[in-house]
Amino acid sequence: MVAGYGFCGKGVAARARGMGALVTVTEIDPLRALEAVTDGFEVETMAVAAAKGEVFVTVTGNREVLRAEHFATMRDGAILANAGHFDVEIDLVALHLMANAGRRIVRPMVEEFALEAADGSFRRILVLTRAASST
Question: What is the pTM of this model?
Answer without folding.
Answer: 0.91
